[in-house]
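Notes continue from the previous slide.

Worked example: a multi-chain complex. Inputs as given:
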Amino acid sequence: MTDAPDMNVVFQALAHPARRRILDIVRDRPGCTVGAVGDDFEMSRIGVLKHIRNLEAADLLVSQREGRERHLYFNVVPIQMIYDRWTSEYGRLWAGRLARVKYRVENREEER
Amino acid sequence: MSESERKAVYRVKIRGTVDDVWRELTRTDRPQYAMFNSVMHFNALAAGGQLRMRSPNGKYTGVAGRFVEVTRPVLLSHTLRFTNYDDPECTIVYDLKEIPEGVELTLTVEDLPTGTKSEKQLKQGGPFIVKNLKAVVETGRPTLGARLLFVLFKLLAPFNPESTRSENWPLPGTGS
């Protein structure tokens, strides 16, 4: 189980909409560069870099240097450990089913 | 698709020493809980050595590969292919770094065979491996979810495909 200080950092990192958007971008484009992430934002490059560092500190992003560029990868493990901590108690089967019903109904509403 | 796009990275911090984590990654004396309860067999723990991950009774081989780099106790890299799929092999890299809290373990999967069943299995397996290595080193046993999974594996073993039988995946130089 992730200990409390680790988990605090993860929740803090996830608490900002820009950082959640960065995770979406990197998850969909594994190995993208810091510059490429910045292209999706109107804020300054330094602002984006600050958010990226915050996500790296929480281990939600891992950067690897390849040649002259730094490539970013989404690390799902901290989120998996949050999921593991609470879902076994309440039943992941039913939670999963309810979530799927919500996604299905809401997507259908969007289609209308 | 570029090289960096065909890569997946998983990282976890473990309260232990690099030697503890290395021991778990390379042990052959009992099943490796973090590796889906399979037993590691190799003919040499060195670059070029062949490895197999087999069921505890030795009947089935789930993974076959070759060590690419072995730098004790900080870097272990090997190729991997699942014996039940006919997919291209990928490379697994375990990078162990000593940090004030213990060890930072990074598992990188390179050359992911995109769009294959192996890719799906590797992406599900990555988080399982690093979180169970953490659990085993810190508490001495795998997570509850892993323990339940091992029971399921045991029950389903008779239904493993013929292609995974260990006689189809001999380990050169060991007679097994």
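Summary box: The first strand of chain A starts at residue 32 and ends at 33. Chain A has one domain: 4-111.
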